[in-house]
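Severity: low
Component: inverse-folding endpoint
Summary: output formatting inconsistent between runs
Steps to reproduce: submit the following structure tokens with default settings.
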């Protein structure tokens, strides 16, 4: 709402505020931003239009709220014109949902001087009265204000409809604050204006006159001190000059008493927000979202924003709804027998056996695809006189089959099932979509997992971290636990008191290069049945892993605070963050220190250079989340099982290629698998 009123008698210095906002770590719910005698041109009509259109980013510099604050807030703006080209600007900013913001952030949001609001005593009584006024407005006032109905109703309700006695009853709290009297100064008993603490002691020095003799504002839209102060000043000017200073001191005390009643009346009349519409997503009352709403977690300094978390980012992220793969399910299902073989061969998912050595006789050569004359199935035929074998295109394939019965399906259906499997569609849903036998799907999925596992173990040997003498790379390392198993008494041996076996893996990944993720199965200590976990990685597991991958590679290693990671390594600079909250004693009180997930770390490299980076394990933690989302544990997939390791390796392969076409990537894996089988 925008209200245009003439400048009243209340000055900026009469506001209930104090200058106690410093650069400390204290937090405030609201504050005042006061800019006095601003010199510059301000187009009030343009500012009003911007507020009505909610174009807050286009506001001129003295009115726009600067800084990098992200906490929602409401602002009440008062612009008071002074001399030509000068303005007094007051902004009352209150953060939404009772959120508290640090003083340093408030300083950055202030154009002028940031002041703390000081309601002093009896504020709760005024707040209760204010709430009753709001309740009256909700029950009797108009709900719409598109054409100024609310303002018109307020004028009529307060100024026209109310008789004099009813007006005195409505604003009884205002007259009670003045004692139903208007102060007059008795200069014979006091030569100096009393302090607020001594005001009650000086009551005998003040005599009163009936309030009806004075012209008091009858509407909160009018300045209640405008006529009253003029009459008092006329009386003060009539006394000797040496006593006028004392009288003006009493007048200042009167104005401070009135402003605490006048300002809430303005809020009551004009700044009452319209009734809010139903919000299907109300503000959270608990949980992580509530915690974020109550604290400025996203407000960072300029130094923080200047240092990126990933410095060597290889390209941007492509959203799945904008990505396109080479093949679609319609193309695969509608292809003929000859076309599906051409499609799969062109994409590398089926090998081209033409001209290769016959896998049966190991001496003949296979010819092109042909039919045997009895059916329309295309096959390769060996040209050796004593062999003459016919081979299907999916012969010795890692997951495509050519069987009869309920588990036998065409290449079109198997290719469609492969496409759905690459999109992580559950096997039960693939069965409903394609009617492929569930046993065939389970075998199909198992063969894909084992094929990926072999490919990943082979490709991991070629991964190198860092290596550049001048460009040091940032690497993250962490460990994760996936499952546990309680061994039987026959399997325990000597560790009969610790029967729980854990599935724990370690990971190393370079920031900005997901294809460098290296996983290693660890050998954690066995525990008692009720242990929460196997603990952090042990030095006996970390040492060979670190010496193999990151020693002498010029890397900055980011880990958590596990002690094993503190091992000294040549060519490695290490930093760590503490992921566990800690209870410490401050000023005689026990407080909890929040865990640290990311912090700025500064290092001095061996060549004398200094580098600043962000310490943390966010990349590898997201990799663990990515992997765990692709695991399906059951009676066959459990700790120390072959299928659990295969699922982890398969998820690792998907993490390597998460921004690529998995259909074509599968063709590369199949080609690598068939290298030793298809010989030319």
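Observed output (run 2 of 3):
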């Amino acid at each position: 709402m925008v209200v245009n009123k003439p400048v009243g008698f209340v000055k900026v210095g009469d506001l209930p505020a104090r200058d106690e906002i410093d650069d400390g770590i204290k937090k405030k719910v609201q504050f005042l931003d006061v800019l006095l005698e601003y010199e510059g041109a301000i187009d009030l009509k343009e500012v009003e239009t911007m507020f009505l259109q909610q174009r807050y980013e286009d506001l001129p510099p003295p009115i726009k709220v600067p800084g990098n604050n992200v906490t929602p807030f409401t602002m009440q703006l008062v612009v008071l014109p002074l001399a030509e080209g000068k303005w007094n600007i007051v902004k009352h900013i209150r953060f939404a949902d009772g959120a508290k913001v640090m003083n340093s952030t408030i300083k950055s949001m202030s154009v002028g001087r940031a002041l703390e609001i000081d309601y002093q005593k009896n504020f709760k009584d005024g707040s209760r009265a204010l709430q009753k006024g709001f309740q009256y407005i909700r029950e009797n006032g108009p709900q719409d204000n598109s054409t100024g109905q609310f303002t018109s109703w307020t004028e009529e309700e307060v100024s026209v409809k109310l008789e004099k006695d009813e007006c005195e009853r409505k604003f009884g709290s205002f007259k009670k604050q003045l004692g139903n009297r208007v102060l007059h100064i008795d200069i014979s008993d006091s030569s100096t204006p009393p302090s607020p603490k001594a005001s009650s002691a000086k009551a005998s020095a003040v005599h009163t006159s009936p309030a009806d003799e004075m012209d008091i504002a009858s509407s909160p839209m009018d300045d209640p001190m405008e006529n009253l102060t003029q009459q008092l000043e006329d009386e003060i000017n009539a006394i000797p000059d040496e006593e006028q200073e004392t009288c003006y001191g009493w007048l200042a005390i009167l104005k401070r008493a009135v402003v605490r009643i006048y300002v809430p009346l303005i809020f009551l009349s004009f700044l009452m927000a319209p009734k809010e519409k139903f919000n299907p997503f109300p503000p959270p009352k608990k949980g992580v979202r509530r915690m974020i709403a109550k604290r400025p977690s996203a407000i960072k300094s300029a130094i923080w924003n200047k240092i990126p978390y990933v410095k060597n980012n290889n390209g941007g992220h492509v959203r799945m709804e904008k990505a396109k793969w080479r093949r679609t399910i319609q193309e695969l299902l509608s292809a003929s027998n000859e076309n599906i073989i051409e499609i799969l061969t062109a994409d590398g998912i089926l090998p081209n056996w033409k001209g290769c050595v016959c896998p049966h006789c190991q001496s003949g050569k296979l010819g092109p695809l042909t039919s045997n004359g009895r059916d329309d199935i295309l096959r390769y035929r060996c040209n050796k006189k004593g062999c003459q074998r016919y081979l299907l295109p999916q012969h010795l394939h890692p997951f495509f089959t050519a069987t009869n019965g309920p588990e036998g399906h065409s290449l079109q259906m198997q290719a469609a099932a492969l496409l759905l499997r690459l999109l992580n569609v559950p096997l039960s849903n693939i069965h409903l979509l394609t009617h492929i036998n569930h046993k065939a799907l389970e075998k199909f999925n198992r063969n894909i997992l084992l094929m990926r596992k072999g490919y990943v173990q082979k490709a991991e040997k070629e991964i190198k971290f860092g290596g550049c003498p001048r460009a040091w790379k940032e690497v993250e390392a962490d460990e994760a636990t996936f499952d546990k198993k309680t061994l039987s008494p026959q399997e325990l041996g000597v560790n009969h008191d610790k029967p729980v076996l854990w599935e724990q893996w370690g990971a190393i990944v370079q920031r900005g290069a997901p294809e460098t993720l290296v996983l290693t199965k660890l050998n954690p200590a066995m525990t008692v049945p009720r242990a929460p976990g196997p603990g952090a990685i042990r030095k006996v597991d970390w040492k060979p892993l670190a010496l193999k991958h990151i020693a002498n590679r010029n890397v900055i290693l980011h880990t958590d605070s596990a002690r094993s990671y503190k091992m000294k390594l040549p060519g490695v600079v290490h930093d760590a963050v503490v992921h566990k909250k800690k209870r410490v004693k401050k000023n005689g009180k026990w407080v909890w220190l929040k865990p640290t997930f990311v912090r700025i770390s500064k290092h001095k490299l061996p060549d004398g250079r200094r580098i600043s980076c962000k310490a943390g394990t966010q990349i590898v933690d997201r990799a663990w989340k990515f992997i765990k989302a692709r695991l399906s544990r059951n009676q066959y997939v459990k700790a120390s099982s072959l299928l659990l390791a295969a699922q982890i390796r398969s998820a690792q392969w998907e993490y390597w290629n998460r921004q690529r076409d998995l259909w074509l990537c599968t063709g590369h894996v199949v080609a690598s698998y068939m290298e030793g089988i298809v010989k030319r």
